Fold:
Amino acid sequence: MPFENLIAGGWVAGAQYGLNRNPSNPDDIIGEFAQADSAQLDIAVAAALKAFPQWSTGPIQTRSDALDRIGSEILSRKEELATLLAREEGKTRKEALGEVTRAGHIFRFFAGECLRLSGEVLPSVRPGVGVEITREPVGVVGIVTPWNFPIAIPAWKIAPALAFGNCVVFKPADLVPASAWALAEIIHRSGIRAGVFNLVMGRGSVIGDPLVTHPGIAAVSFTGSVDVGRRIALQCAEHGKKVQLEMGGKNPQVILDDADLNVAVELSAQSAFFSTGQRCTASSRLIVTENIHDRFVQALTERMALLRIGDALAEGTDIGPAASESQLHQNLQYIEIARAEGAELVAGGDRVACHTGSGKPGYFVAPTLFTHTGPDMRINREEVFGPVASVIRVTDYEEALAIANDTEFGLSAGIATTSLKYATHFKRHAQAGMVMVNLPTAGVDYHVPFGGRKNSSYGPREQGRYAQEFFTTVKTAYVAS
Ligand code: NAP
Structure:
Protein backbone atom coordinates (compact mmCIF):
# COMPACT_ATOMS: atom_id res chain seq x y z
CA MET A 1 0.00 0.00 0.00
CA PRO A 2 1.48 3.39 -0.95
CA PHE A 3 2.33 5.90 1.75
CA GLU A 4 0.59 9.24 1.32
CA ASN A 5 1.17 12.85 2.25
CA LEU A 6 -0.45 14.37 5.31
CA ILE A 7 -2.25 17.52 4.18
CA ALA A 8 -4.93 19.47 6.09
CA GLY A 9 -5.37 16.62 8.57
CA GLY A 10 -5.88 13.83 6.01
CA TRP A 11 -3.80 11.35 4.02
CA VAL A 12 -3.65 12.53 0.41
CA ALA A 13 -2.57 10.52 -2.65
CA GLY A 14 0.57 11.76 -4.40
CA ALA A 15 0.72 13.56 -7.72
CA GLN A 16 3.17 10.73 -8.39
CA TYR A 17 5.04 8.06 -6.41
CA GLY A 18 8.65 7.06 -5.79
CA LEU A 19 10.21 3.82 -4.58
CA ASN A 20 12.30 3.74 -1.41
CA ARG A 21 15.16 1.20 -1.45
CA ASN A 22 17.35 -0.35 1.23
CA PRO A 23 20.99 0.67 0.56
CA SER A 24 22.27 -2.55 2.21
CA ASN A 25 20.19 -4.55 -0.26
CA PRO A 26 18.81 -2.43 -3.15
CA ASP A 27 16.41 -5.21 -4.15
CA ASP A 28 14.57 -4.70 -0.89
CA ILE A 29 11.84 -2.12 -1.58
CA ILE A 30 10.71 -0.43 1.62
CA GLY A 31 7.65 1.14 0.06
CA GLU A 32 6.08 3.39 -2.49
CA PHE A 33 5.88 6.98 -1.27
CA ALA A 34 3.72 9.85 -2.49
CA GLN A 35 5.35 12.88 -4.08
CA ALA A 36 3.40 16.12 -3.79
CA ASP A 37 3.07 18.76 -6.48
CA SER A 38 2.79 22.51 -6.05
CA ALA A 39 -1.05 22.44 -6.07
CA GLN A 40 -0.95 20.08 -3.05
CA LEU A 41 1.65 22.31 -1.44
CA ASP A 42 -0.75 25.25 -1.77
CA ILE A 43 -3.43 23.23 0.03
CA ALA A 44 -0.98 22.29 2.82
CA VAL A 45 0.11 25.91 3.35
CA ALA A 46 -3.50 27.13 3.27
CA ALA A 47 -4.43 24.53 5.90
CA ALA A 48 -1.50 25.59 8.10
CA LEU A 49 -2.46 29.26 7.78
CA LYS A 50 -6.04 28.41 8.73
CA ALA A 51 -4.92 26.40 11.77
CA PHE A 52 -2.42 29.03 12.94
CA PRO A 53 -4.67 31.50 14.85
CA GLN A 54 -6.07 28.83 17.15
CA TRP A 55 -2.86 26.83 17.59
CA SER A 56 -0.74 29.92 18.25
CA THR A 57 -3.05 31.45 20.83
CA GLY A 58 -4.55 28.27 22.32
CA PRO A 59 -3.61 26.75 25.69
CA ILE A 60 0.06 25.89 26.04
CA GLN A 61 -1.05 22.78 27.94
CA THR A 62 -2.55 21.47 24.67
CA ARG A 63 0.76 21.92 22.89
CA SER A 64 2.77 20.47 25.74
CA ASP A 65 0.52 17.40 25.99
CA ALA A 66 0.71 16.78 22.23
CA LEU A 67 4.51 17.00 22.19
CA ASP A 68 4.73 14.74 25.21
CA ARG A 69 2.49 12.15 23.52
CA ILE A 70 4.61 12.29 20.36
CA GLY A 71 7.87 11.86 22.31
CA SER A 72 6.45 9.05 24.40
CA GLU A 73 5.17 7.15 21.38
CA ILE A 74 8.51 7.49 19.59
CA LEU A 75 10.26 6.10 22.66
CA SER A 76 7.80 3.25 23.14
CA ARG A 77 8.19 2.24 19.46
CA LYS A 78 11.92 2.90 19.26
CA GLU A 79 12.93 -0.66 18.29
CA GLU A 80 10.53 -0.76 15.33
CA LEU A 81 11.41 2.79 14.22
CA ALA A 82 15.15 2.07 14.50
CA THR A 83 14.78 -0.97 12.24
CA LEU A 84 12.96 1.13 9.66
CA LEU A 85 15.56 3.90 9.85
CA ALA A 86 18.53 1.50 9.51
CA ARG A 87 16.80 -0.25 6.62
CA GLU A 88 16.24 2.95 4.66
CA GLU A 89 19.31 5.06 5.51
CA GLY A 90 21.97 2.42 6.13
CA LYS A 91 23.29 3.43 9.56
CA THR A 92 23.57 0.43 11.87
CA ARG A 93 20.61 -0.60 13.97
CA LYS A 94 22.45 0.48 17.12
CA GLU A 95 23.10 3.93 15.67
CA ALA A 96 19.50 4.14 14.46
CA LEU A 97 18.28 3.26 17.93
CA GLY A 98 20.36 6.13 19.31
CA GLU A 99 18.87 8.51 16.75
CA VAL A 100 15.28 7.45 17.40
CA THR A 101 15.76 7.71 21.16
CA ARG A 102 17.15 11.19 20.69
CA ALA A 103 14.11 12.18 18.59
CA GLY A 104 11.80 11.00 21.40
CA HIS A 105 13.77 12.94 24.00
CA ILE A 106 13.69 16.08 21.83
CA PHE A 107 9.87 16.05 21.69
CA ARG A 108 9.68 15.54 25.44
CA PHE A 109 12.21 18.33 26.04
CA PHE A 110 10.12 20.76 23.97
CA ALA A 111 6.95 19.61 25.73
CA GLY A 112 8.57 21.31 28.73
CA GLU A 113 10.05 24.23 26.81
CA CYS A 114 6.67 25.50 25.64
CA LEU A 115 5.76 25.98 29.31
CA ARG A 116 8.96 27.91 29.99
CA LEU A 117 8.72 30.65 27.34
CA SER A 118 9.38 33.84 29.26
CA GLY A 119 9.52 37.56 28.59
CA GLU A 120 10.75 40.67 30.33
CA VAL A 121 9.10 43.57 32.09
CA LEU A 122 11.16 46.75 32.23
CA PRO A 123 10.55 50.31 33.45
CA SER A 124 10.29 52.82 30.61
CA VAL A 125 12.51 55.89 30.36
CA ARG A 126 9.23 57.80 30.27
CA PRO A 127 7.27 58.34 33.49
CA GLY A 128 3.96 56.49 33.71
CA VAL A 129 4.88 53.91 31.08
CA GLY A 130 5.74 50.22 31.42
CA VAL A 131 7.53 48.07 28.82
CA GLU A 132 6.83 44.39 28.23
CA ILE A 133 8.92 42.20 25.95
CA THR A 134 7.28 38.96 24.84
CA ARG A 135 7.90 36.25 22.26
CA GLU A 136 5.26 35.17 19.77
CA PRO A 137 5.16 32.43 17.14
CA VAL A 138 6.45 33.34 13.70
CA GLY A 139 3.66 31.79 11.58
CA VAL A 140 3.80 28.87 9.18
CA VAL A 141 7.29 27.39 9.08
CA GLY A 142 8.70 25.45 6.12
CA ILE A 143 11.03 22.65 7.23
CA VAL A 144 13.45 21.05 4.73
CA THR A 145 15.71 18.22 5.92
CA PRO A 146 18.56 16.01 4.61
CA TRP A 147 18.76 12.22 4.38
CA ASN A 148 21.47 11.47 6.94
CA PHE A 149 19.40 11.88 10.14
CA PRO A 150 15.91 11.11 8.85
CA ILE A 151 14.15 11.29 12.22
CA ALA A 152 16.33 13.32 14.61
CA ILE A 153 16.78 16.39 12.37
CA PRO A 154 13.05 16.61 11.55
CA ALA A 155 12.39 16.19 15.29
CA TRP A 156 14.70 19.00 16.34
CA LYS A 157 13.00 21.39 13.92
CA ILE A 158 9.35 20.28 14.18
CA ALA A 159 9.27 20.01 17.99
CA PRO A 160 10.33 23.62 18.74
CA ALA A 161 8.25 24.95 15.85
CA LEU A 162 5.10 23.39 17.33
CA ALA A 163 6.08 24.05 20.94
CA PHE A 164 6.25 27.80 20.36
CA GLY A 165 2.92 27.91 18.51
CA ASN A 166 3.92 27.74 14.84
CA CYS A 167 2.30 25.57 12.19
CA VAL A 168 4.50 23.39 10.00
CA VAL A 169 4.84 22.23 6.40
CA PHE A 170 7.57 19.57 6.39
CA LYS A 171 9.50 18.34 3.34
CA PRO A 172 11.88 15.47 4.12
CA ALA A 173 14.68 14.31 1.81
CA ASP A 174 13.32 12.26 -1.05
CA LEU A 175 15.83 9.49 -0.30
CA VAL A 176 14.38 8.74 3.16
CA PRO A 177 10.61 9.23 3.19
CA ALA A 178 9.81 6.20 5.37
CA SER A 179 11.16 7.58 8.66
CA ALA A 180 9.55 10.94 7.90
CA TRP A 181 6.23 9.29 7.17
CA ALA A 182 6.40 7.26 10.40
CA LEU A 183 7.13 10.45 12.36
CA ALA A 184 4.27 12.27 10.61
CA GLU A 185 1.89 9.46 11.45
CA ILE A 186 2.85 9.68 15.14
CA ILE A 187 2.39 13.46 15.10
CA HIS A 188 -1.00 13.04 13.40
CA ARG A 189 -2.13 10.49 15.99
CA SER A 190 -1.17 12.81 18.86
CA GLY A 191 -4.48 14.55 18.21
CA ILE A 192 -3.23 17.96 17.08
CA ARG A 193 -5.72 19.89 14.97
CA ALA A 194 -5.90 19.46 11.20
CA GLY A 195 -3.44 21.67 9.37
CA VAL A 196 -1.11 22.35 12.31
CA PHE A 197 1.38 19.85 10.88
CA ASN A 198 1.60 18.84 7.20
CA LEU A 199 3.90 16.40 5.41
CA VAL A 200 4.70 16.98 1.72
CA MET A 201 7.12 14.42 0.35
CA GLY A 202 8.94 14.79 -2.96
CA ARG A 203 12.05 16.15 -4.67
CA GLY A 204 13.67 19.40 -3.59
CA SER A 205 13.50 20.88 -7.08
CA VAL A 206 9.79 20.01 -7.40
CA ILE A 207 8.37 20.68 -3.97
CA GLY A 208 11.21 22.18 -1.88
CA ASP A 209 11.72 25.18 -4.11
CA PRO A 210 8.03 26.29 -4.17
CA LEU A 211 7.84 25.65 -0.41
CA VAL A 212 10.69 28.06 0.26
CA THR A 213 9.23 30.82 -1.93
CA HIS A 214 5.57 30.29 -0.98
CA PRO A 215 4.03 33.57 0.24
CA GLY A 216 2.26 31.76 3.11
CA ILE A 217 5.55 30.51 4.59
CA ALA A 218 6.97 32.97 7.12
CA ALA A 219 10.22 31.17 7.97
CA VAL A 220 12.36 28.35 6.57
CA SER A 221 14.50 25.99 8.63
CA PHE A 222 16.87 24.01 6.40
CA THR A 223 19.58 21.42 6.93
CA GLY A 224 21.59 20.13 3.99
CA SER A 225 24.36 21.08 1.60
CA VAL A 226 25.99 24.50 1.28
CA ASP A 227 24.88 24.93 -2.35
CA VAL A 228 21.20 24.36 -1.64
CA GLY A 229 21.40 26.31 1.64
CA ARG A 230 22.88 29.38 -0.05
CA ARG A 231 20.19 29.32 -2.70
CA ILE A 232 17.50 29.10 -0.02
CA ALA A 233 19.06 32.00 1.93
CA LEU A 234 18.93 34.20 -1.19
CA GLN A 235 15.31 33.23 -1.87
CA CYS A 236 14.36 33.96 1.73
CA ALA A 237 16.10 37.33 1.66
CA GLU A 238 14.27 38.19 -1.56
CA HIS A 239 10.90 37.19 -0.12
CA GLY A 240 11.54 38.68 3.34
CA LYS A 241 11.42 35.39 5.24
CA LYS A 242 13.28 34.37 8.37
CA VAL A 243 15.83 31.64 7.57
CA GLN A 244 17.97 29.20 9.49
CA LEU A 245 20.54 27.00 7.73
CA GLU A 246 22.66 24.09 8.98
CA MET A 247 25.07 22.91 6.31
CA GLY A 248 28.30 21.03 5.71
CA GLY A 249 31.45 20.43 7.70
CA LYS A 250 35.11 19.52 7.27
CA ASN A 251 35.71 18.98 10.93
CA PRO A 252 39.25 18.77 12.30
CA GLN A 253 40.37 16.32 14.95
CA VAL A 254 43.69 17.45 16.46
CA ILE A 255 45.86 14.79 18.13
CA LEU A 256 48.75 16.09 20.17
CA ASP A 257 51.91 14.24 21.24
CA ASP A 258 50.68 14.11 24.85
CA ALA A 259 47.34 12.48 23.95
CA ASP A 260 46.33 9.15 25.44
CA LEU A 261 46.87 6.98 22.34
CA ASN A 262 43.90 4.66 23.00
CA VAL A 263 41.55 7.59 23.52
CA ALA A 264 42.84 9.33 20.38
CA VAL A 265 42.43 6.20 18.24
CA GLU A 266 38.97 5.35 19.53
CA LEU A 267 37.55 8.82 19.13
CA SER A 268 39.09 9.18 15.66
CA ALA A 269 37.60 5.85 14.51
CA GLN A 270 34.26 6.93 15.93
CA SER A 271 34.28 10.41 14.39
CA ALA A 272 35.60 9.46 10.99
CA PHE A 273 33.98 6.14 10.17
CA PHE A 274 30.89 5.43 12.26
CA SER A 275 27.55 6.17 10.62
CA THR A 276 29.58 5.52 7.43
CA GLY A 277 31.05 9.02 7.84
CA GLN A 278 27.67 10.45 6.81
CA ARG A 279 27.49 13.01 9.59
CA CYS A 280 27.93 16.75 9.27
CA THR A 281 29.94 16.51 12.51
CA ALA A 282 32.21 13.67 11.29
CA SER A 283 35.92 14.44 11.45
CA SER A 284 37.63 13.85 8.15
CA ARG A 285 40.86 15.75 8.88
CA LEU A 286 43.06 14.10 11.51
CA ILE A 287 45.74 16.67 12.35
CA VAL A 288 48.51 14.84 14.19
CA THR A 289 51.73 16.17 15.76
CA GLU A 290 54.93 14.48 14.67
CA ASN A 291 56.02 12.53 17.77
CA ILE A 292 52.76 10.56 18.01
CA HIS A 293 52.08 10.45 14.25
CA ASP A 294 53.48 7.00 13.35
CA ARG A 295 52.15 5.27 16.48
CA PHE A 296 48.74 6.85 15.92
CA VAL A 297 48.52 5.85 12.24
CA GLN A 298 49.60 2.28 13.08
CA ALA A 299 47.08 1.93 15.93
CA LEU A 300 44.23 3.51 13.95
CA THR A 301 44.90 1.20 11.01
CA GLU A 302 44.76 -1.79 13.37
CA ARG A 303 41.50 -0.52 14.83
CA MET A 304 40.04 -0.05 11.34
CA ALA A 305 40.85 -3.66 10.48
CA LEU A 306 38.48 -4.72 13.27
CA LEU A 307 35.51 -2.74 11.90
CA ARG A 308 32.85 -5.02 10.49
CA ILE A 309 31.21 -3.70 7.34
CA GLY A 310 27.85 -5.12 6.36
CA ASP A 311 24.08 -5.07 6.38
CA ALA A 312 22.90 -2.23 8.59
CA LEU A 313 20.38 -4.55 10.23
CA ALA A 314 22.79 -7.41 10.95
CA GLU A 315 23.93 -7.99 14.52
CA GLY A 316 27.57 -6.93 15.00
CA THR A 317 27.82 -4.57 11.99
CA ASP A 318 29.95 -1.52 12.77
CA ILE A 319 29.73 0.26 9.42
CA GLY A 320 26.70 0.12 7.15
CA PRO A 321 26.48 1.11 3.48
CA ALA A 322 26.56 4.53 1.85
CA ALA A 323 22.97 5.77 1.78
CA SER A 324 22.64 5.67 -2.01
CA GLU A 325 24.42 4.64 -5.16
CA SER A 326 25.31 8.26 -5.91
CA GLN A 327 26.77 8.68 -2.42
CA LEU A 328 28.85 5.52 -2.97
CA HIS A 329 30.18 6.95 -6.24
CA GLN A 330 30.97 10.26 -4.56
CA ASN A 331 33.04 8.40 -1.94
CA LEU A 332 34.94 6.43 -4.60
CA GLN A 333 35.50 9.59 -6.62
CA TYR A 334 37.08 11.38 -3.66
CA ILE A 335 39.29 8.35 -2.99
CA GLU A 336 40.54 8.66 -6.59
CA ILE A 337 41.02 12.41 -6.18
CA ALA A 338 43.13 11.87 -3.05
CA ARG A 339 45.28 9.25 -4.80
CA ALA A 340 45.76 11.54 -7.78
CA GLU A 341 46.78 14.35 -5.41
CA GLY A 342 49.57 12.15 -4.06
CA ALA A 343 48.03 11.05 -0.77
CA GLU A 344 49.19 7.66 0.50
CA LEU A 345 46.44 5.09 1.00
CA VAL A 346 47.03 3.08 4.20
CA ALA A 347 43.63 1.41 4.64
CA GLY A 348 40.47 0.79 2.63
CA GLY A 349 40.08 2.58 -0.66
CA ASP A 350 37.62 0.25 -2.39
CA ARG A 351 34.04 -0.73 -2.72
CA VAL A 352 33.31 -3.77 -0.57
CA ALA A 353 31.59 -6.60 -2.44
CA CYS A 354 28.97 -7.42 0.12
CA HIS A 355 25.75 -9.05 -1.09
CA THR A 356 23.13 -8.94 1.60
CA GLY A 357 20.34 -10.02 -0.76
CA SER A 358 20.26 -12.22 -3.80
CA GLY A 359 20.55 -9.53 -6.47
CA LYS A 360 22.29 -6.14 -6.61
CA PRO A 361 25.12 -5.60 -4.11
CA GLY A 362 24.69 -3.00 -1.37
CA TYR A 363 26.52 0.34 -1.51
CA PHE A 364 29.40 -0.61 0.77
CA VAL A 365 32.72 1.19 0.82
CA ALA A 366 35.65 0.26 3.08
CA PRO A 367 36.61 2.78 5.76
CA THR A 368 39.53 4.57 4.15
CA LEU A 369 42.57 6.33 5.58
CA PHE A 370 45.12 8.48 3.75
CA THR A 371 48.42 9.78 5.10
CA HIS A 372 50.95 12.23 3.67
CA THR A 373 48.23 14.72 2.88
CA GLY A 374 48.53 18.50 2.80
CA PRO A 375 45.98 21.02 4.01
CA ASP A 376 45.45 22.38 0.50
CA MET A 377 44.50 19.07 -1.09
CA ARG A 378 40.86 18.75 -2.15
CA ILE A 379 40.51 15.75 0.15
CA ASN A 380 41.19 18.15 3.04
CA ARG A 381 39.05 21.01 1.82
CA GLU A 382 35.84 19.49 0.45
CA GLU A 383 33.20 17.53 2.33
CA VAL A 384 33.30 13.86 1.24
CA PHE A 385 30.41 12.70 3.44
CA GLY A 386 31.66 9.12 3.59
CA PRO A 387 33.99 6.90 5.66
CA VAL A 388 37.13 8.60 4.34
CA ALA A 389 39.66 10.40 6.55
CA SER A 390 43.08 11.87 5.95
CA VAL A 391 46.00 12.49 8.27
CA ILE A 392 47.85 15.80 8.18
CA ARG A 393 51.22 15.70 9.96
CA VAL A 394 52.20 18.87 11.83
CA THR A 395 55.11 19.94 14.05
CA ASP A 396 53.29 21.41 17.03
CA TYR A 397 50.02 22.63 18.57
CA GLU A 398 50.25 26.07 16.97
CA GLU A 399 50.48 24.59 13.47
CA ALA A 400 47.69 22.12 14.29
CA LEU A 401 45.35 24.93 15.38
CA ALA A 402 46.14 27.03 12.31
CA ILE A 403 45.34 24.10 9.99
CA ALA A 404 42.24 23.15 11.99
CA ASN A 405 40.90 26.66 11.40
CA ASP A 406 42.02 26.85 7.77
CA THR A 407 38.70 25.77 6.28
CA GLU A 408 35.56 27.37 4.92
CA PHE A 409 33.56 25.33 7.46
CA GLY A 410 33.19 25.71 11.23
CA LEU A 411 30.80 23.15 12.67
CA SER A 412 32.68 20.91 15.13
CA ALA A 413 36.36 20.68 16.14
CA GLY A 414 38.07 18.21 18.47
CA ILE A 415 41.34 17.88 20.32
CA ALA A 416 42.93 14.85 21.97
CA THR A 417 45.39 15.97 24.63
CA THR A 418 46.20 15.53 28.30
CA SER A 419 47.32 19.15 28.56
CA LEU A 420 44.95 21.54 30.30
CA LYS A 421 46.81 24.42 28.67
CA TYR A 422 46.23 23.22 25.11
CA ALA A 423 42.67 22.02 25.79
CA THR A 424 41.76 25.43 27.23
CA HIS A 425 43.42 27.32 24.40
CA PHE A 426 41.75 25.13 21.76
CA LYS A 427 38.29 25.57 23.33
CA ARG A 428 38.68 29.33 22.97
CA HIS A 429 40.45 29.54 19.60
CA ALA A 430 38.96 26.75 17.49
CA GLN A 431 36.73 28.50 14.95
CA ALA A 432 33.76 26.17 15.30
CA GLY A 433 30.31 26.19 16.85
CA MET A 434 31.08 23.06 18.87
CA VAL A 435 34.38 22.00 20.46
CA MET A 436 35.18 18.56 21.86
CA VAL A 437 38.01 17.75 24.26
CA ASN A 438 38.98 14.05 24.27
CA LEU A 439 35.62 13.21 22.68
CA PRO A 440 34.58 12.47 19.11
CA THR A 441 33.59 15.50 17.01
CA ALA A 442 30.29 13.74 16.35
CA GLY A 443 27.85 13.02 19.16
CA VAL A 444 25.93 15.84 20.75
CA ASP A 445 23.32 16.36 23.45
CA TYR A 446 19.72 17.23 22.58
CA HIS A 447 19.18 19.94 25.21
CA VAL A 448 21.95 22.38 24.25
CA PRO A 449 22.54 24.53 21.15
CA PHE A 450 23.76 22.88 17.97
CA GLY A 451 25.33 24.69 15.04
CA GLY A 452 28.45 26.20 13.57
CA ARG A 453 30.19 29.14 11.98
CA LYS A 454 31.41 30.20 8.55
CA ASN A 455 29.80 28.12 5.77
CA SER A 456 28.47 25.49 8.19
CA SER A 457 25.59 27.53 9.57
CA TYR A 458 23.59 30.67 9.03
CA GLY A 459 21.02 32.22 11.33
CA PRO A 460 20.06 31.41 14.91
CA ARG A 461 21.16 28.17 16.58
CA GLU A 462 19.04 25.04 16.72
CA GLN A 463 18.09 22.96 19.78
CA GLY A 464 17.97 23.54 23.50
CA ARG A 465 16.42 26.74 24.77
CA TYR A 466 18.28 28.64 22.03
CA ALA A 467 15.73 27.22 19.55
CA GLN A 468 13.23 29.90 20.59
CA GLU A 469 15.35 32.53 18.85
CA PHE A 470 14.35 31.23 15.42
CA PHE A 471 10.88 29.90 16.16
CA THR A 472 9.60 33.04 17.87
CA THR A 473 9.51 36.74 17.10
CA VAL A 474 9.95 39.44 19.73
CA LYS A 475 7.26 42.00 20.53
CA THR A 476 7.83 45.11 22.64
CA ALA A 477 4.65 46.51 24.21
CA TYR A 478 4.43 49.97 25.85
CA VAL A 479 1.67 50.35 28.42
CA ALA A 480 0.54 53.58 30.05
CA SER A 481 0.00 53.02 33.74
P1 NAP B 1 20.89 18.55 0.08
O1 NAP B 1 21.08 17.91 -1.24
O2 NAP B 1 21.24 19.99 0.21
O3 NAP B 1 19.33 18.34 0.43
C1 NAP B 1 18.80 18.77 1.66
C2 NAP B 1 17.31 18.98 1.48
O4 NAP B 1 17.09 20.07 0.59
C3 NAP B 1 16.60 17.77 0.84
O5 NAP B 1 15.32 17.64 1.41
C4 NAP B 1 16.50 18.20 -0.59
O6 NAP B 1 15.48 17.54 -1.31
C5 NAP B 1 16.20 19.67 -0.43
N1 NAP B 1 16.42 20.46 -1.64
C6 NAP B 1 17.22 20.19 -2.69
N2 NAP B 1 17.12 21.18 -3.60
C7 NAP B 1 16.25 22.09 -3.11
C8 NAP B 1 15.74 23.32 -3.57
N3 NAP B 1 16.11 23.84 -4.75
N4 NAP B 1 14.87 24.01 -2.79
C9 NAP B 1 14.48 23.52 -1.60
N5 NAP B 1 14.92 22.34 -1.12
C10 NAP B 1 15.81 21.64 -1.84
O7 NAP B 1 21.65 17.77 1.24
P2 NAP B 1 21.67 16.20 1.52
O8 NAP B 1 22.51 15.55 0.47
O9 NAP B 1 20.29 15.70 1.75
O10 NAP B 1 22.42 16.14 2.93
C11 NAP B 1 23.80 16.14 3.08
C12 NAP B 1 24.31 17.49 3.49
O11 NAP B 1 23.63 17.91 4.67
C13 NAP B 1 25.78 17.48 3.84
O12 NAP B 1 26.41 18.61 3.30
C14 NAP B 1 25.78 17.55 5.36
O13 NAP B 1 26.94 18.09 5.94
C15 NAP B 1 24.60 18.40 5.61
N6 NAP B 1 24.11 18.24 6.98
C16 NAP B 1 24.32 19.26 7.85
C17 NAP B 1 23.91 19.15 9.18
C18 NAP B 1 24.11 20.28 10.14
O14 NAP B 1 23.40 20.33 11.13
N7 NAP B 1 25.04 21.20 9.90
C19 NAP B 1 23.29 17.98 9.61
C20 NAP B 1 23.11 16.95 8.68
C21 NAP B 1 23.51 17.10 7.37
P3 NAP B 1 15.70 16.14 -2.07
O15 NAP B 1 16.90 15.49 -1.51
O16 NAP B 1 14.46 15.42 -1.77
O17 NAP B 1 15.81 16.47 -3.50
About this structure: Residues 144-149, 171, 173-175, 203-205, 208-209, 212, 223-225, 228, 231-232, 246-249, 280, 383, 385, 411, 456 surround NAP (CB under 6 Å).
